[in-house]
Amino acid sequence: MSNADTHGDTKPTAFAQAMLDLRESAVLSGTEKRNLAICAIVAALWALLPLFSTGYILSLGISITIFAGLATSWTLFSGPTNYISLATAAFFGIGMYTVAGGVNLLPYPVLILIAAVAGALFAALIGLATLRISGVYFVIFSLGLAELVRQVVSWGQHVMGTSSGLYVLVDRSDSVFFWQLLVFTLVVFLVSWWIGRSRLGFALRIIGNDEVVAVHCGINTARAKVTLFIISSTFAAIAGALVAPRWSYVEPTLAFSPFLSFQVVIMSLLGGVHRLWGPLVGVIPFTIMWEFISAKFPSQTTLLLGVAFLLIVYFIPHGFVGLIEDFSRRRSGIWAALRSKWQAKGGGHE
Amino acid sequence: MQRRNLLKLAAAGVVAGSLGLGTAQAADTIKIGVVGPKTGPLAGGAAITHFPNFMMWQKLVNDRGGLKLKDGQRKIELIEYDDRTSPPETIKAVERLATVDNADFIMPVYGTGFNLAAAPIFAKHDYPQLAQAFVTDQGPELIKRYPNLFIIQGPTKAFARDAIAVLKKLLDEKKIGNRVAVVNVADAFGIELANVARPLFKEAGFELVYDKSYPLGTQDLAPIVKGAKAANPDAFVAWSYPPDTFALLEQAKIEGLNVKAYYSAVATAFQGFYGKYGQLAENVLGAGGYEDTPAIRDYMKIHKQVTGVDADYWGSALYGSMLQVLEQSIEGVGSLDRKAVTAYIKSRTFKTIVGDMDLRNQQMTRVWTVGQWQNGFFQAVAGDGFTNYKPVILKNNW
After folding, report:
1. In Å, how far is B89's CA from the nearest CA of chain A?
2. Structural domains in chain A, sorted by start
3. pLDDT averaged over consecutive 10-residue blocks of chain A (350 residues)?
4. Which of B2, B88, B191 lies nearest to residue A157, judging by beta carbons?
5. What secondary structure letter does DSSP report for B289?
6. Do residue B40 and residue A154 have CB atoms under 8 angstroms apart?
7. Beta carbons within 10 angstroms of residue B271's beta carbon
8. Which of A161, B271, B282, B355 is the 20 to 30 A CA-CA neighbour of B333?
């Protein structure tokens, strides 16, 4: 399968640039060192949040942190490959159920490990079976996946005769919970960054640009895609495992809610999927905007959110990253920006 | 140019919005926080059972001048948030009410999982949590864990147990045979009820001639109903959810599934169910039910007048009673001291529209569990702790 039709105009300059990037990736460049330092400082400051608020602001911080992790791990796979995955909820739910099922039997850290392994194995299975299909078929399949797993879990409970809701009653302060999630999100960032500058990341960018070219370059495209899918999905499973104690009660409809998958995709796209920090600049305004809307207009949330999305898609089709980068290039006028973006649609490295 | 203007406009709108809505609150009202699903899968149920009761309470209390405290009467003001049927949103909204809005009291949220997710926050800030839409078999453990949690609902098994007891009585009186067809929706409450019920049916001397589940959201229930009919049952029991409760009745009529006792679980108690099917719904059994008293009839009437929504025959009056408990406790204490109010609730019984309510053990001891449509009223025919049940009427053919 090829999606060459949409990306026929791969620019040789981009290719050459990527080759150069790759060669330099063995050592850290000055910019990279600077970025890592900035990242560390931001994370350290963010980690101080529980010292200032233990109430609402902290729970908002928890939302932002968890979605930053989920959106970044989603982008890890879907960004370079252009495979829009709506399967986040499936893996998130698996992680959640692992913890809910074993919370009275095993220590919590072991459960997180099991959740990660379960997520990875399941992703491998799914990835091997489906990553040969492309484009819209994959989107539809991934959407159905969460529903499939949910039905299987429900069926399992029906057969085993257990109650449908599982209780996860663990005492943990919000601050500890926040720090756990922060560590998780940092790991996601570091792994994403590392993959982005590795051979694997390079291979994926080529696949995203033109899969036929990738095959001709000698890249094992299936293996590269499956590997990334596994890594990305494992993170989603870990996120579910970390969140379970906060929910206290896990049932299939909540754990496998398709809404989560959509939220992650929307946040990532709002930010921009071709930069590591892209999802982050999507998650923060999205969470705050949504809070604002649901606080001020509790009865019209969905309507206003829909309007907000229309405006976003219409006026900033390439996410905040695109906006910021356009701005920094001092291009005036929205049409010029749009046109240039349109021409560069195939890849993220202009 | 265009973009800049638009951004300005948007920014202006945001600022205006926040100012306009932020300053509308008077300082001397009692702030009551309300969180529930206005969107998402549970929004339909909440629009009937959850939100209207708070609106009605606010109207009734404010019409009489407000709640009487030691330092004078104060009106109540509702602050509502939508949790979009998502636990993290519930947590965030309750946190927001507690720490940003400084709500004086926070109403229970809607749904078992949601009340559980919010319980630590209610506990942290000492809010009494009078949870009604909260069906659990872990009650004793949960109230030990959360000393401010009150469960105003029966345990899961009571609903299955009592429905079977109703049938058993008919069996003992030789009014029906012992062949029962059981179906259930393969989701949360449906699975739990079916699992609890299976051994109980056998214990009661019934033969399960048909026992099938169907996935949530099944569009075509014809095969299920056909199968049940082919088994030639004397009674039909469906541990069902709102959409299928309606669809099953329709299908049962189409297929001519005639039984002497017909039970469907959730939503049979909705007035909309009787409103839609009228005579067909007559003598259908279901979860919930109220005793036919003037207090309840008044409550239903006022509910409709004030909110424009018909109350249901299961949770609504319990919500109404819960609010009476809270109201009496706040006025009894004479201040907004939440710890004192919680202690007050634990210290006595209260007169409410569903009769005496005793929450001293944090869990309601009396609850109606099975109702039957009789002349447009969903009469309680079984329950826990009550004595005055209407006798069950056998169902005619469709």
Report:
1. 9
2. 4-257 (1.10.3470)
3. 43 56 62 85 91 86 94 91 90 94 90 96 91 80 89 81 77 88 95 90 87 88 91 96 91 86 88 86 88 80 78 79 77 62 56
4. B191
5. -
6. no
7. 20
8. B355
